[in-house]
Structures are given as structure tokens and as C-alpha cells.
Amino acid sequence: MSIWGRITKLNLGQLCKLSLLFLSRPHYIIPTISATKKTLLVCDRLYKDTHHQSNKANAFRHALWNVLICRKVMKYAKNKQKSVFWAQKVADLYEKVTQNEVLDQEMDLHNNTIGRIFFLNHLEQKEAKIIDLLQKMSQKAQKTKKIEQMHQHKNELVYLTQ
């Protein structure tokens, strides 16, 4: 399902939470939306619809989304920690309000964190290089079946299904 499709399914309370977050930093709205659109375009091109499953492509998408939010917001925030903090707030809230299954949610939160760490470790890389490195990283993602297993892969992407 697309991001917009997910948003249209949110209830009023969930929409209010997202709106309040964006109202707290209105100058981050456009870069966040831009990062989201870019992520979906890249993932659609590379993986078609498969990135909407709980697989390696999904792990890639979540990591890339967080990297791109950080990169685009940093242009406004002028501070890498502020951009990482914003990406975490957006991604964590998104996962909370969309209410996935617990294991899927934990997988997404884990891969979001990996993306933010990746951003900090590859600040100077061009976007194309980041995409290439994340694709390689996603091919080495670890298959997990339990939350405890995810915690064992602190520096790796994780996925649930082929």
C-alpha cells in the first residue's frame, strides 16, 4: 500500500498526532514529503510492488526512507543530530499510528534505526552511492522470526519473509 493510501486509512486521532508533529516543525514538511516520494520512486523502480512485503526490499525501503529524510531535513536544520532526531520522530510516529502487526512494526523500527545510523556514517556520499550501498546491505539482511533475534543484528537490516 502507498504512503498516501495508508494516510487515508488513519482515524482522526492518528491524523491529529501526525499533524501536530508536522506543525511543530512546518519547515520540515516539504523535505519529509520529498524524501518519502523519492523513496517510493526508487523502490518502485528497483523492486516493483515487492517492497510492500516484509522482505529484503522492505528493509531497504525503510532504511532509505530514513536516510533521505535525514539528508533533506539537514539542509534546513543545518545539523545532523537534529535531522536524525526528526527522522526518528516521523518514522516512529508513522509506525505507531499505522498499527502493523507487532513483529512487522519492530522490523520496520529496526530498519529505520539502521537507516539513520547509515546516514551518520555516510554523510558525504552522493545519493546514488547511498542507494547502491543500501542495496548491497539489504542483500545481506538477516531473516528473523522473533523480536529478540532482531536485537542480535544491531548493525544489519532484518526481514521476515522471502
Distance between the termini: 18 Å
Could you name the ranges where pLDDT drops below 50 across 5 or more consecutive residues? none
- Would you tell me the overall average pLDDT? 91
Strand content: under 5%
Sketch the major β-sheet.
Answer: 2 strands, parallel
Q: Give, in order, the helices and strands.
A: HHHHHHHEHE
Shape type: globular
Helix count, DSSP H or I runs of 4 or more residues: 8
- What is the tally of beta strands? 2
Please state the structural category: mainly alpha
What does the oligomeric state look like here? single chain
How much helix is in the residues?
Answer: over 70%
Main sheet strand line-up: 1-2
Computed over alpha carbons, the radius of gyration is 15 Å
Quick overview of this protein structure:
The protein has 162 residues and is an all-alpha fold. It has eight helices and two strands.
Describe this structure in words.
Strand 1, helix 8 (147-151) and strand 2 form a beta-alpha-beta unit. The protein starts with a helix and ends with a strand. The protein has helices spanning 3-8, 12-24, 29-47, 56-77, 80-98, 102-121, 127-139, 147-151, and strands at 142-143, 158-159. The protein is globular and about 40 Å long. It is built from eight helices and two strands, in the order H-H-H-H-H-H-H-E-H-E. It is mostly helical and 162 residues long. The chain has a two-stranded parallel ribbon with strand order 1-2.
